[in-house]
Amino acid sequence: MYKRNLFTIFIFLAPLILFSQNLTDASGKKQGPWVKNYPNGKIMYEGTFRDDKPVGLFKRYTEEGVLLSELTYAPGKDEATAVFYYGDGIKAAEGKYVARKKEGLWRFWSATQPPYLISEEYYHNDTRHGLSVKYYADSTLAEKVAWDMGNRSGEWLQYYPDGSICLRAEFMAGKLEGPFSYYHPNGKLQYEGRYLEDRRTGDWMIFNEDGSLKQIIAYKDGVPADPKLADQETSFLDDLEKKKGRVTVTDITGTVIK
């Protein structure tokens, strides 16, 4: 009898529970719990609205039902702390949104098992601004460079996995400017020269692993005086410039609930 009464109560309340979500007020503003579904019926996101604004925890899922992100909205503010996940549940990134734009410190992790911290970057108004640091799998520092509203600015350093210096250069307004040094893994200089507005200029010296001078190449406006002599060395530097030597990190982004 007791179980039958509970079942009767549940059947009576079920419609009330079902229709207490996805409500709008007289002004058309979302109020209370909301769930949005994909065409296949799986939940797209779930959370709570107050006066058409998300509050508290929102969860977003893939069409297969895998958790993609968790955003926690601050009461009375257009801010949210965010955590994004890879498809297997490994944390991919975390940071903060202000006015739906990345702000402050963001951290990114690898998709490997076990995961490791790939990078730490600072943002302002959805744009990289401040120190950016990248790591190897064992947490050894791999690279650091400062950003000024989307442009690399200041000293650029790269390191070998053993912690020794690999590259030292300078950026100004997003362009390589001034002295440039690239090192062999044994710590000896491999390349030394200068940049002027992102172009190699003047005499560039190339060294052997034992530190002895191998070659001097003269550049003007980024072009070597003797292209044939410089083919091999130039291709290496061209590739380095193209990549800007950086460790590639996927920028994990997600949709902020509107």
Report on the structure:
The chain is mainly beta and about 260 residues long. It has 2 helices and 20 strands. β11 and β12 (about 140-150) form a beta hairpin. The longest helix is centred in the first third of the chain and has 17 residues, at about 1-20. The chain is elongated and about 80 Å long. The model is unreliable at about 1-20 and about 245-258 (pLDDT under 50).
Q: Into how many domains do the coordinates divide?
A: 2
Number of strand elements:
20
Our count of helices gives 2
Q: What is the 3D shape? A: elongated
The largest sheet is: 20 strands, antiparallel
Secondary structure elements and pairings:
Elements lengths: L1 H17 L4 E2 L5 E8 L5 E8 L2 E9 L5 E7 L5 E7 L5 E8 L2 E9 L7 E8 L2 E2 L1 E6 L5 E8 L2 E9 L5 E8 L2 E2 L1 E6 L5 E8 L2 E9 L5 E8 L2 E2 L2 H17 L15
Antiparallel strand pairs: 1-2, 2-3, 3-4, 4-5, 5-6, 6-7, 7-8, 8-9, 9-10, 9-11, 11-12, 12-13, 13-14, 14-15, 14-16, 16-17, 17-18, 18-19, 19-20
Brief sketch in words of this structure:
The protein is mostly beta strands. It contains two helices and 20 strands.
Defining key terms:
single chain; 258 residues; mainly beta; 2 domains; 20-stranded antiparallel β-sheet
